[in-house]
Amino acid sequence: MDTKAFENYESEVRSYSRKFPVVFAKAKGSYLYDEDGNKYLDFFDGAGAENYGHNNPEIKEKLIEYLNDDGIIHGLDLYTKPKRDFIDYFEKEVLIPRGLSYKIMFTGPTGANAVESALKLARKVKHRQEIWALMGAFHGMTLGALSLTTDRNPRASAGVSLDHVTHIPAPYMFDMDTISYMEKLLTDDHSGVEKPAALIIETIQAEGGVYVMDETWLQRVRKFCDQYDILLIVDDIQVGCARSGKFFSFERAHIVPDILVLSKSIGGYGMPFALTLMKPELDIWKPGEHNGTFRGNQLAIVAAKAGLEFMISHHIEEEVERKSKIVEQFLQDEILPIHPKIKVRGIGLIWGIDFGEFSDSVISSIVHEAFYRNLVIETAGRFDSVLKIMPPLTISDEDLKMGLSIIKEAILEVIK
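Above: the chain's sequence. Below: its structure in token form.
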């Protein structure tokens, strides 16, 4: 395959292409196809942007219909029919059945932009500069979102100080009560830490290594924020849209965040789209205080509504919970016995196989071996030591099991 254009002219910042060095030309369902016609089972899922599968035919049909009707494509934040239809459907079919009441903000079309808007709003509401985030967090690569993110390499690339954020140890990191720790920071007049406007969390740290926060811990976090007048922001960008088995990842803990950010699969078809949801009393924005030329991407709004319709009509949440048992059983029965140093964890259709106790070369070799066997899969966590299983939610049982078997083959090839 001809890759000279990329190697000669594309910036050195490219990353995924270095792990998967073929030229992809097509995608359908759970598969990617290179320009020579080879097909690759996708356990990467566009970093979580393709929950309903590549080129989902039901969503595509509605996009084509909209394009053929010359529907408005670029609308800034004008009133448009697609936006009204989406809002009505989202409220009726997603929010009301879950007892949720949120105002909907159409931000710039990336998750990082939604995070930026959430930070701005929290600081505006509470008149405080500080934000608390967890160690192991990933919230984006723009400066505000990057200040929350803890991965050393992207932080170093900022080139400026990343201020006004205090990072709290994640509950899995130490044998300590992180809630009591946060209380101590607030109540000890010698802690040296300012009270934050908000605490932002992922209920499942995906890029941090697939760590699922305990339901009881999440409930205690909600109570802590209420007690100390701190807004709770949940970043559901990667693990929302039914990835965890529930549309919102926090549903399992029966909590309600004050502000919620969505992107990736909320775009329905892999379209750039992001939302910030806020409790109505927090919506104190002045017109245009947070804007962007491509906010409210109209084609993505059409795809988003179609994606929600597909999710509901095909009972995707129930299907994810069922398929989750297939993954968990395979990991327990087939992967853990390979070596005592291997650890597994996850929920829904996001799982991690942790090789942190092995040398750095082991995980990269496993990814290479999996790709050699036509499986695309990514890594996450400290030193990229966690193999992240994240297929489309629509994957068939047969393809899911085949992908898991390829993972086993790749591990056995590397760990002999």
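The chain has 14 helices and 17 strands.
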